[in-house]
Design brief:
Elements lengths: L5 H17 L2 E9 L2 E5 L1 H6 L7 E8 L4 E7 L1 H5 L2 H10 L1 H4 L30 H27 L1
Antiparallel strand pairs: 1-2, 1-3, 3-4
Length: about 150
């Protein structure tokens, strides 16, 4: 894996800062050994090759200062080849992800009739039937009112 240039390190730090600010978070880094915490800046962390026998403590805070999470990256994890393997996997990722077959969606079925004689979809409501039913109810109500008024008059 190649070394990062200072411009690349600055770009990574800028992206990290933007990402944390987007989620309204702050991160603090410490090197810990035998219970002692030594503060560490992000730029120093990005340029470190080894932890020199120390563990890396990462504390994540909200922008209000509330501790949300903390975790430790031990010396063994820091010095392991896991980061090199991740870098190799990223470089070889394009080779591993080959598309074998592209599935094309089925074309839409053509209309059975031409545009001038195409069949319309059945979206109409039975307005006429509802209107006649309403008029029937109004007529029946008027008849009952008239019938009841005639019965009271006698």
């Amino acid at each position: 894996m190649t070394e990062l240039s200072p411009a690349q390190i600055a770009e990574i730090a800028d992206v990290w800062t933007d990402l944390l600010s987007a989620f309204q978070l702050e991160a603090k880094f410490y090197l810990t050994k035998n219970g002692e915490k030594k503060p560490l800046s992000l730029s120093t962390l990005l340029t470190m090759k080894s932890a020199n026998g120390c563990d890396l403590l990462v504390e994540i805070y909200s922008t209000e200062g509330e501790l949300l999470a903390d975790f430790v990256v031990t010396e063994e994890m820091f010095a392991s080849d896991i980061f090199d393997e991740i870098g190799e996997d990223l470089q070889n990722g394009g080779q591993a992800a080959k598309i074998e077959k592209v599935v094309k969606p089925a074309p839409p079925k053509p209309l059975k009739r031409t545009e001038s004689g195409a069949k319309l979809p059945k979206t109409a409501s039975p307005y006429t039937a509802y209107m006649l039913f309403g008029l029937t109810l109004i007529g029946a109500g008027a008849f009952l009112v008239r019938f009841c008024q005639g019965a009271e008059a006698k």
